[in-house]
Specification:
The protein is of the alpha+beta class. It is about 25% helix and about 25% strand. The structure holds pyridoxal-5'-phosphate.
Length: about 375
């Protein structure tokens, strides 16, 4: 039931019976279970409430949100909006027919590799951001698992382009996945077929539109990231994401928007679905690949843009937990999270507790690129 409680006006998000979100009141999301979910919006103690109103609104961020809403974006950014057709192993199939067997190897053992890519509605029209780099990473991810992708990069590009065109998306999130299907359920996937699927659907700002402006409150997770000596962490394997899920859910249960995960040595690794950057004394630091991080493509974009703007970037940094608390600025990068400021860690305010000037400058540069779409080497135009 959506509706008001008679005390404080509620913003209605959906028709009765259509979704589990009842309403947004102030900064909290009320769900059917009555849970107050502070996703996107500060912590449950409202520590930053009084300041939030005075924060500057970023015109580019709001223009982008309009672009992203090309196809009825939900106020729940993480909600799946649906799509009509999915590309599976060389064919377009209807959404309902995009099925896989319950004895699929990847379902049991996490043996899949995938990508998360965004297509933006740029001034040059819909364009997939850093598609080549995402494709390269997909093939790299497949390598240690001997997953033999049966389609060429050109074929996957063609399938993706056709999918976006026929679905009529101006902007969307794209999810290619390659995984071991069913043959036998031994841990060895030797005789399992390789399945390849690409889906695309409209998706808003991962941590919420407001997060891009105001920043997010995060906690250091009690879960450590796998060491890269245990499982390759620089690539995107489905099985790795149980760690991300545990860390992210722990954070949300405790009223935070997102987690920061430390590596086995106790140094800062990354977020569950984001790389992390720190600003100190005007210089930028981000953990290196040896710290058990995903080799993020947005991380690379941010480093490139920051260096072009004249910043010194330490891209192989080792960052201690303590340095997080004393940082001038912190921000996440990721295809889903884009460039999201972090305004507190474990309830310690970072800088002024709002988006810092370096983050602001870099975020603006990032949005300029994806809004204009005119940096040709970074776009595949649809
Ligand atoms: C664990 C992890 N780290 C970092 C990132 C950011 O990577 P990218 O910028 O390539 O999306 C992601 C997102 O895919 C991720 O899942």
């Amino acid at each position: 039931m959506c509706g008001a409680d008679g005390q404080i006006p509620l913003k209605r998000l959906c028709s009765p019976g259509q979704c589990s979100v009842l309403a947004v009141r102030d900064n909290a999301t009320l769900t059917r279970g009555g849970i107050v979910n502070t996703l996107n919006q500060g912590n449950q103690w409202g520590r930053y409430d009084t300041r939030r109103d005075s924060r500057r609104h970023h015109p580019r961020a709001s223009r982008l949100s309009t672009h992203r809403r090309g196809r009825a974006m939900s106020d729940r950014p993480e909600m799946f909006e649906g799509t009509d057709r999915i590309w599976m192993d060389g064919e377009f199939v209807d959404f309902e027919d995009a099925q896989t067997h319950v004895l699929t190897h990847a379902l049991h053992y996490g043996t899949g590799v995938f990508e998360g890519v965004r297509c933006y509605d740029t001034e040059q029209g819909p364009a997939v951001f850093r598609w080549e780099e995402h494709l390269d990473r997909l093939y790299k991810s497949a390598k240690p698992y001997d997953l033999d992708i049966e389609f060429s990069k050109d074929e996957l590009t063609e399938a993706t382009t056709e999918l976006i065109e026929t679905e009529g998306f101006e902007s969307c999130y794209i999810r290619p996945i390659v995984y071991y299907g069913f043959d036998s359920l031994g841990v060895s996937p030797k005789d399992c077929p390789t399945k390849t699927t690409i889906a695309a659907w409209p998706w808003g700002a991962y941590l919420g539109e407001e997060a891009l402006e105001e920043g997010v409150d995060v906690m250091v997770s009690s879960w450590r990231k796998h060491a890269s000596s245990q499982i390759p962490t620089n690539i995107k394997t489905t099985g790795l994401y149980v760690n991300s899920m545990l860390a992210g859910e722990e954070a949300r249960r405790n009223g935070y928007t997102e987690a920061i995960v430390l590596n086995k040595e106790g140094n800062v690794a990354e977020g569950p679905g984001e790389n992390i950057f720190m600003v100190r004394d005007g210089e930028i630091y981000t953990p290196g690949l040896a710290e058990s991080i995903l080799e993020g493509i947005t991380r690379n974009t941010a480093i490139t843009l920051a260096e072009e703007m004249g910043y010194t970037v330490h891209e192989e940094a080792t960052i201690s937990r303590g340095e997080l608390y004393t940082a001038d600025e912190l921000f996440f990068t990721g295809t889903a999270a884009e460039v999201t400021p972090i305004r507190s860690v474990d309830d310690n305010e970072i800088g002024e507790g709002t988006k810092g000037p370096v983050t602001d400058e870099l975020q603006s540069a990032f949005f300029d690129v994806i809004e204009s779409g005119d940096r040709e080497e970074w776009f595949h135009y649809v």
